[in-house]
Amino acid sequence: MLAGYEQVLGMPSGAMQATCEGLGRSIFASGRPALQRARALGGGQELLDTVYDGASRHSTTGGDWFALTSYWDHMHSTMIPLAIVRQLTATLLAEMVRSCGAAYVTRYQALCHLADHPIYAQVLVEAVLDFIAVPGVEPVIDAISLLGEGLPEQTAPVLLDLGADPAGRTRTGAVSALSNQIRMGAFPDELRPRLRQLVGALCAGSLDDARLARQLIVRMGPEDQAAGMELLRRRAAPAPATGVRPLPPPHAPVDLARFEHAAQEATGLPRDPVLRRLLQEVHVHDRVDLRHHACLLLMASPYRVSLADVALDVLTEQPGSASSVSAGIMLSYLATEDHAERLTALLPHSRPEVRMAALTALTHAQGVSPDLDLLALSSRTEFPDATVRYAAGMAAHPDLGSWAQSSTVPMEVRERCRWWQRNGSAVRR
């Protein structure tokens, strides 16, 4: 049925199906959803041939990946050589971290099919560990987050190890994945002592580490949560707020009726309570997981363009405010090519947070122009910061080459620019 809706609405194949699967794995906290995958129940050999042939030419669509892994997910005893599965998994992972929009949703959920597959889950774990070990690799957090979707007996010990890694991005990805397992009720009880040990180490670390600890603590059981909050309160260094915000709080920092009115005007549809709840999830709390999936649903909705129009207005009304930050997050999901001109006009804005939000949204909507002076937008004028590198990498911007070779750019930044050069630009299909 969902595949039929995609066809009627002119959506990319797999976009709605993958979005719904993501809801089942996160917001609904119900594990693997029982979706009828009509396309994936037959034609397995044809799907494999399509994906395998297209992978080497970088022509496989997200819908093709989603359909193939759906077939594998349904047919646990498929006789595919593991060497081929490893090759395809590595290709799919490398595409997922560079994809945006429907191309991202379909590829991420395709990898989720592998994450809880009884045979291929270990292949994915190995692929992720190989991926993040490459010098200069940029999208570490996205890759590690996949392990939070997998079989916890295999992935939780790996994530606990990664949570103690010296690299901050690795710790961040591991904590995000562990948080997902805890919220889903999938984290193995016998590993609770190791989890408490990790929380203690993070509480004793930097302020960023303490924030990661809080992310785990608020999802733990009452006894562990109380002990973790006490550790945060005892920190000699500054500690993050220890209160837990209600979900959702009673009032949003922005008038949600503005978004609702624009959506109704654009579509002619009546008042939609689901739209109101999704807007609340985006604007009224700091739960990254709920906000992410709410934005994915809005991206797949008929309201997308009209909501992005309003978000562009809200972004610049009170820069730095909670409403402006939320609007920027919305735009990174909802902006389309139709918004490129307005986003480009915001790049010289006097407030850096507005510039960065506009740059990220433009990167996802269509990519930056090759003649854009990206270094002028960086928070560090002597070398490109992470947002600027991301925009350059996704667009194969010509400045990547000069940054990769420049002796005035730190070696770590040069390696990350070279990673983008080796791995290619944005995947949009």
TrEMBL record:
Superkingdom of the organism of origin: Bacteria
InterPro entries reported for this sequence: ARM-type_fold
Name of this protein: HEAT repeat domain-containing protein
Organism the protein comes from: Luteipulveratus halotolerans
Organism lineage: Bacteria, Bacillati, Actinomycetota, Actinomycetes, Micrococcales
